[in-house]
Every structure is written in structure tokens, then in C-alpha cells.
Amino acid sequence: MKFIVCVKLTPDTEELAEVRTDDVGAGDLGVTMVLNPWDEFAVEEALALQERVGGETVAVTLGPADEAEALKRAVAMGIEEAVLVSDPTFEGSDAWGAAEILAQSIRSLGDYGLILTGRQSVDGNSGLVPPGLAVRLGVPFVSQVARVVEITEDSITVMRALDAGVQTVRVPLPAVISVSKEINEPRYPNFIGIRKAARQQYPVSSAADLPGLDGKLVGATNARLTWTQLRKPAARTGRCEMISGATPAEQAANLVERLIADKVI
Amino acid sequence: MSILVFVDHSAGSARPVSWEIVGKARALAEAGSGPVVALIAGYGLNDLALEAIHRGADRVLVADAPELDGFRAHAWASILKAAIAEADPHIILVPATAGIRDAAALAACELNIGLAADCQELSLDAGGALVAERPVFSGNIIATIEFRGPRQMATIRPRSFPLPEPDASRSGEIVPLAVNLTGLAATEEVLAFEPAQAGELAVENAAIIVAGGRGVKGPEGFAPLRELAQVLGAAVGASRAAVDAGWIPYPAQVGQTGKTVRPDLYIACGISGAIQHLAGMSNARVVVAINKDPGAPIFGLASYGIAGDLFAVVPALTAVLRARLGN
Fold first, then answer.
1. How many domains does chain A have?
2. For chain B, what is the domain count?
3. What is the pLDDT of residues A145-184, one digit of tens each?
4. Å from B7 to nearest chain A CA?
5. In chain B, what residues touch A128 (CB-CB under 8 Å)?
6. B248, B251, B255, B259 alpha-carbon torsion, rounded to 10°
């Protein structure tokens, strides 16, 4: 079975707070870029499933040439093949455009069994590309997968986290799943993996390689939504009032008076 | 022209976020966006349709079928598509809760409708089109979203808008929605469902959260926090450090790689306040920090602080509240 993981290059979470609004969209955020942390769980699960049932693993990413860094990390972790999908006409695509481009590139790779993604990216945060990908491929989608219970040639049974509890669902393959952080503990790349990733070729697939691409969905002019304004969230105003009291009981009583006055309890 | 709101519910009750959205839709409708149409999908729905009217809907589309017992993303997406065809809304609003948000995404992509996820603020532009605000970069930036196309869709986070009081004098129309679900059950077979532990309140829906971090020192350290939470009717949250250490399960995690919350009151116990944690809770109305280290960054964000040992302060707080609130 072929396992395909869709990955993205995103800011290091340690530096997310340093991203300046002026730099968003400028091509360089001025922060360290790494494999989207949510995607590490998808990469790990693809490798774990390959160890369980055999097959091949492929990582796909969409974006400018620098995005190959995300592929490198996936390959260093153990993914065998990696494809960069890149074309200037893809820039500014919305989630549905990105989903169409990824769907067409996945189709161009031949038969596939399971597509895995992270829950969302730490930059865009919407989590819309995974369901979009399922729609563009015409296959089932299951999100927030916390455990793969069983995988056969033609179906996958998973546990999906919902607010009210955990549901066990079976869908036919091929399918798209997005995984949650409970699913596994991503491995660290070892020295051999890092060396392999450095030597690996990262073939680039462009618009010309995707003859089935629906051009009406792709690029900035076809995006159904745009970020028209960015701002930093309002900083909390006022300073912290330290609650005094000779004993914890006195402090507690003083705090409760304030919380009642604030009408929060 | 209408506004369609997809109602999320569980065990016979609507999630409060559903009515929060209906209330906001009502306000947008008064500003000239046409009637508010609520959509409810499920099995044995009983009084939910009437409640939707009392909360502010003018019309309710009800898809009630055994195939809709239990969440199925693709079946719910079909229902949403049928409702869009029926109500012809220009604005479609859906709770950003697990499950139903996937149905929204599947339907929006199939119909090529722009979808803004996890919105916290909504308004209308001069032409009556939806304008949404949503956090990006894990809460570190707020983006204003404008749409292209005749319809606009958004998923809305819990507690973004006030909960409207039910008004039993409101009247409206309840209409069954005809849908064809043939074949969908095979696409997504639900084999089992294990409900979350009774009495466990989810952090994203809670008005008050009592959260613990590294300072609680172990799984048993959460016991005094749970007692405080019980007295307050609060949910128990945690920082990543506590979750990664295995002291409390992941659904309790607040922060960049966990839940984003906006309660009225957030009581941070033994949480130093790493920037990743702050990104998930800085929208709380009032923050109380209890920490041994008076230099902890959490105090920079807190409304009230107690520099002290949480194992002394938290039980004292529980005792005072028990006496004061009478429970």
C-alpha cells in the first residue's frame, strides 16, 4: 500500500509570537522555518503503518523551493520518496486551490491507499486543506484520528476524537485522514536519515505536469477569501494586582471578593 | 437572502455555541441580512427546533433520520448542501466544534464557497457581505477575512458571542428537510462510540477554567484543582508540560498545540506562562495566577496574582468559595 503524507513548512512554534504582520505574505517571515509540528505526527503514523503492513511512503509539499526543507525532515525521519509541487501560478491559492493542486499531484503519482495529514498548520490554522483534498480526490475524510485500529487492503478503522467522546469509524480506502497529537510520539531523525535526506533528490512538479488541474480554483485571482488586514491581538491592559494577606486563607478571601466584584463567579 | 446556521448538539441538547451563533445571526439579520434559518440534523430531535426559534431563528430545517444518529462527516455535509439548496443563504455559519466543522469544510469545498475557520468576530461590509476575524499563527495574529463569491461561510469558536436568552413568544416555521442518504452509511460506518467521562466539562465550552502546569508536580497534584473546579462548576485545563508528563490527558491541554479558550475566568496554578500557553488563553476575561515564583511570566498577563504555594492557596480558595457560594 502507498502511504502519502502531505506536509508544510511553518515557523518554529518557539518563534511564532515574533512573526510580524508586515512580513506575512512577503515571502520571508524572518523566523526559523521547520516541518509543521502537527505534520510530524502524520509522518510518524505513515512510517508506523508501513512497518505494520508494508508498502511505500511518499511526502508531498506545496510551495516555493524553500519548502523542500519540510520534505527533508520527513525523509530524515524515514519517508522514502518526496515531491515538491511548485509553480508561480499557484501562489495565493486559498485552501480549496491548494487542495486541488495537491489532489492532482497525488493522482499523478499513481495508485495510493492512504493520505495522512496533520490536524492543521501552525500558521494558517484552518485545517481546511485535508477535507478539501478528500473532496478534490472524491474519497472519504476522517479528522482528528487518535488511533488507527485496523488497516486492510480496502478499508481503515480509526478512532476519531469528538467533543462528546471517541467514535470508532471505518471508511473504505483510499481515504484522507488528519491525525491528532494523541496518535503517536514522532521519532527523531537519526544520523543515517539526516545524511540520506541531504543526498536525496527532490523532484519538482509544476503546473505543466498536472494536466488535470482545474485552473478555475487555483491562484490568487481565484481565491474565495483573502486576508485583508492583519493585526496583533490587543495586549491585556492593566497590570497584575498582587493579592495580599497574611495567610493563604486571607489571600483566598481577598481574591474571592474581587472575583465576585468582577462578576466572573 | 438569508443566514443559515447549522446547529451542533449532543445527547439531546444543543451546544451553547449553536445558540450563540443564532443570536449573532439575529443581530446580522436585523442589520439587513434577511431571515435566520437554523438547520438541525440528527435522530429523534424533539424540542431542538422549537428552541432554535426561541433563541432567534425565523425558520428551522430539520433533517431527522436514523442514518443521522451519531456524527458522520459526509452525511452531515450532504445535509448542509441540501439546506443550502433549499434556503439559498448568502451567509452560512457553523460551530467550529469537532465533527460538524468537517461537514462544513466538505460542503464548502464541494460548492466552492469560501470558508473562514475558527472565527471570533463577524460583521457585514457595505454590500451586506460577511467580514470575519480569525486568529492565525496560533493566536499570535488576528486576520480580517473578506470573501469573494455570492456565498460566505464561517465556522465560529465557542464563546465568541453572548448566549441569547430563549424568548418563548417568538414564532417561526419548522420544515422537514428531504435528503437522500443512500450509500452514505457505507462511506463512513460508525462502529462504536465511547462518551467522554460524565461530569467532565470540556475546556473550550467552560466559563471558568482551573488549569495546572509543571507546578502541580504529578497526576495527584491535580486533585486540589479538581476540587476547586467542582465548587466553581469549572473545567480542568493544563499546560503542555503537564500533558507531556502524562499527568492529565491531552484534551485538557490549553495553548498553541492544544485548545484555544476564552473563559470569563482562568485560574492558572503552577503555570509559568510560556508564550505557547499564553497564546491559548490570553483572551480570558479575568486571569488569576497562582505561582511560587513571583517573576513567572504568567503574572505579566494576569489580572490578579498570588505569589505562593498552590498546594496551600488552592485548598484555601476552595474552602472560601464553598462557604461563600454554599456548595
1. 1
2. 2
3. 999 999 999 999 999 988 888 999 999 999 999 999 889 9
4. 14
5. 105, 109, 115, 117
6. -160
